[in-house]
Write a structure and sequence with these properties.
The model has no long low-confidence stretch (mean pLDDT 95). The chain is α+β, with helices and mostly antiparallel strands. A 4-stranded antiparallel sheet has the order 2-3-1-4, covered by helices on one side. It has a single domain, classed as ORF SCO4226, nickel-binding ferredoxin-like monomer (Alpha-Beta Plaits). The protein contains 2 helices and 4 strands. It comes from Lentzea flava. This is DUF4242 domain-containing protein. InterPro entries: SCO4226 (IPR042557), SCO4226-like (IPR025336).
């Protein structure tokens, strides 16, 4: 299944480089949970991050974030690519 997760607020002082490093940590961790983080987007103005992930369920996606860097998404939505 595809999911879009939303991080509504970046940690204080976090930069796009920090988000890139967190994504790399996800990629190193994902295989243990049958998950594939496909892409991410950063909205610097709003301080939000969006991650597109293929996972068996939302909790598996959360586990990867939790283990990789501890920054679990605030929201996660099942999506269908158009």
């Amino acid at each position: 299944m595809l999911f879009m997760d939303v991080h509504n607020e970046l940690p204080e002082g976090a930069t796009a480089k920090d988000v890139a490093e967190a994504h790399e940590a996800d990629l190193r961790t994902q295989d243990q949970h049958g998950v594939r983080y496909l892409n991410y987007w950063v909205d610097d103005q709003a301080g939000k991050v969006f991650c597109l992930v293929e996972a068996p369920d939302a909790e598996a996606a959360h586990r990867v974030h939790r283990e990789a860097h501890g920054l679990v998404a605030d929201e996660i939505y099942p999506v269908v690519q158009g």
